[in-house]
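worker-3 :: picked Catalase
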Amino acid sequence: MAGIMQKAQQAIMGHKGDKTTDLAQETKEVSSKDRLTTDYGVKQTTADDWLKIVSKDSTGPMLLEDPFGRERIHRFDHERIPERVVHARGSGAFGKFRVYESAEDLTFAPVLTDTSRETPVFVRFSTVLGSRGSADTVRDVRGFATKFYTQEGNWDLVGNDIPVFFIQDAIKFPDVIHAGKPEPHNEVPQAQSAHNNFWDFQFNHTEATHMFMWAMSDRGIPRSYRMMQGFGVNTFTLINAKGERHFVKFTWTPELGVHSLVWDEALKLAGEDPDFHRKDLWEAVENGVYPKWKFGIQAIPEADEHKFDFDILDATKVWPEDLVPTRYIGEMELNRNPDEFFTQTEQIAFCTSHVVPGIGFSDDPLLQGRNFSYFDTQLSRLGINWQELPINRPVCPVMNFNRDGAMRHTITKGTVNYWPNRFDACPPASHQEGGYVEYAEKIAGIKARARSEKFKEHFNQAQLFWNSMSPIEKSHITNALSFELDHCEDPVVYGRMVQRLADIDLGLAQTVAEMVGGEAPTEAKRPNHGKRAKALSQFEFPPMKTSIASRRIAILIADGYDAAAFTAAYGAISAALAIPLVIGTKRSKIVAADGTTSIQPHHHLEGFRSVMVDALFIPGGEKSVVTLSKSGRAQHWIREAFGHLKAIGATGEAVDFVNKTIALPQVSVSSSGDAQESYGVVTLRQVSLSSFSEAVEIAKGATGFL
Ligand code: HDE
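worker-3 :: tokens ->
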């Protein structure tokens, strides 16, 4: 085996792949030089009038004869394809991946060993339950799917922002998704787990317990796709050149740290800006603040497979970092927005079964089922030739005898379409030539519908997760469960679920029971094992470097604002690569106190809301501050931002306005003009923004108190 691996490793030479150049072959750009044509290329003289019978004073019937008119309506009628059965709503971007430390001790796959190589990627982020048109900030798991266009073929790492899953065996997938999606009788609710069927399933299906705790934590409401971890969830395998195999899990950790919204923000954003995450990703890439993630691997040698008190093939379990540390070896950057949503973000199709030589599967029963499902589901969405679509095709050569089928468009010359053939055309590749190497695993067993014993333990890691949370995170989970179960009308559902929580923590169960009206359990269902683990709390993922880059900072002004303070703030925010958003009492010109300087705001106070920004800044200027202080909406902006634990900066007359509005006696301004901070509120007599910038960082890192 070792010899084969070495030869296979040597044989992988590849072909320089650049996805942008590859896609350029199919990309057209509309310009004023183009003239309108039909799909068959004939120029059209009008886009306005169907061919009809007209007379001098009347318009007569339209003619079915008109091929132009018919073609336009016909094309429109068939524009929609089925949305993804799960993860329907998403958005993505192009980027690049590079390893800075070779993982050659684990694998011979060049994508993970060749430090000189840059692999193009496309990443699609998504929610799971909602339809394509649902809101971004709902409480849900987020998808994090990466297509690596490697020189040895496509590798799809189809992960989530939560490292575990609801079920252990793929056969249960239709049940967990049916239970979470809108209920069958009235198709309510949209994009929510807060309903009877979801929680009924969680109770009846104990293996989901660990996962629902993650979904109820702050991970269920990320601040941004750019601030989420990604996890491959399933156990994969890596094979090295010596033929040794390791079980592995893959992780992405964002450079910006892991941050969340507070629930009140998430709820309001779902109505005020349903595209919040989509726009955030787009803007960051457009503004050149490219999101980056470190790529990590946890590895267990084959011989150690059974050394843990959980089954390492069970996708409802994490591999605690204390037992199996993550080794970070690579980095991914997203740096180009798609040119067209449909042909790229919508038509991209991921398959867990797409792996390249050196990477393999394990017997994880969830992964094995996924390997069938992803491949299969593309048929109803895209048709049999979906791998030929520009976004899906590999950047390395593709040749085989798969032929025909609806919408085939590769034209292959030659007189044979089978193997073996008399010309020796397109023979299978040897290992030496880079042919995929199946690991020669010896397996003995009986055929049965069963799982190994260790899969039957369902609560230890739910408790481990709860124990590992900080007090704020625990209170957020308690509040999330109280919200969700309040939305379940059936007393059987919420009554039983609060009993289930006593399997995790008695205090949690009692608090939630009191809130939602269930009978409070009086004793814990099992003793707390008292264990904690690293890296489960998101407080353990601070930004790799502190920065306010790409954060949105609103500057609130009215006529009479202090132009000097405004300009200094605007300049400092822009210089730090954050996004200053000027919010006026109106969107038409606002004139400064000096009577000459003016600015047209980006938005007005009613058109934009505090939940859409990370921080506020209010410059002085007597008239401006008087106007703002008389505006209920301006006051609401400040109070709401304060409640969401956002940094609020103010100078001059605005200092007293902010203090009065949030009515906090401890917020004061020192006579020296130094910054005074209280829960992220920074007020300054002098214009110096460093304390404010720090407060923006701190406030978001704290994930809020609500
Ligand atoms: Fe998926 N999942 N899934 N899933 N999943 C799909 O494939 C499925 C699971 C994930 O942006 C579908 O192309 C089964 C775990 C993401 O296009 C479908 C099982 C994880 C995406 C499917 C799982 C995921 C999908 C629907 C249990 C985290 C969006 C459309 C055995 C590791 C990919 C599609 C994109 C999409 C099946 C469980 C993540 C139906 C059967 C665990 C990020 O094939």
